[in-house]
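Methods — Computational structure assignment.
A single polypeptide chain was analysed. Its primary sequence is given first, followed by the predicted tertiary structure written as structure tokens.
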Amino acid sequence: MNNKVLVGMSGGVDSAVAALKMQQAGYDVTGAIIEIWDPQDQSECGTSPETSRPWSERGCCHVPMVKYLCEEILSIPFIMVDRRDAFRKKVMDPFREEYLKAQTPNPCVTCNAQVKIHELMALADSLNIQKVATGHYARKTHSPLTGAFHVAKGKDSKKDQSYFLAKLQSSEIERLEWPLAELTKEEVREIARNSGFPVSEMVENMEACFVSDKNLKSYLDRWIPLEMKGQWEAVGQSGEKIGSMEGGLGLTRGQRRGMGTGFGERVYVLDIIPERKQVVLGSKESLSVEECILEDWSGPDPDSIKTPLSVVFRSSMKPVACQISWYSPGQKKVGLTLMEPSPWVSPGQVGAILFDREIILGAGTISLSGNEES
């Protein structure tokens, strides 16, 4: 039996405890850190010393902490692999491009599927290691409904990260171990403290690692074409002008914050139209939709699934009952119909389809238009 396991580590409490739990379970553990972001490139985030934490204090790619944990506490070997180029091409560049097209991407879902887990699997293969473990709060399950492995919600509903793993493939999930699946965050922190980990120095990262402290606007500003800057028209649902606002790119459908009070009533972003430099505003009730498209579908044939389904558009939202069917099989597009209207449907975000309300069947990127030929 090959009892080797490669554990992805970031320098945070969760991945460190994951490595410890695998070690205690009798595995021969090797730690690995996938370097995806260069601390010297902080300026690319559009951040400044006055408004951001230094990268050494963030929970991503903390190489010195991983080295200390592996060598001084866990006594395991560790490997660092540089995947900054892959991260830039697969996560950062698309993130910027989607925002410039008035979408709202989810970089963490993309990063897990296309960089972190993918690269950990490739590294494990090169080391002849079958199993890979991470510190995510999620669990895996094999379903007789599909004959495949799926990501499912972990025990700690407040920390559950299954949504961010929604685009993983069955073959990847089969090889993965999530040692924190049946633990809560407090239990993990207690294990870390009792094991001598320097918990107070292990920073937890709660946001996209390359856009810190809500500086999305300054990050995007350096990439926005000059003709897209300046004043944009604020229009109502019928196209009538109701005011103006500074810039429109970087806004999200459903956004209320930053809309000000100059429109006479509480308004929300309903749509962003870059080619006209217009932002469509309306009431909260106008946000709700019953249908959308899920592009780049990652799950099984939707027409073959004969069980009640639900969907989430955010990691923490309550699942909404739904139905799915092919919209364009050749283009991997699935049509989604909600059993009750939802205001949380934002183009560019990820819709994760659940069965049994906690097991992810598959996922796709939200689109509100289906102009492409099927």
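Note: The helical segments are 13-24, 63-74, 84-100, 107-126, 170-175, 185-194, 216-221.
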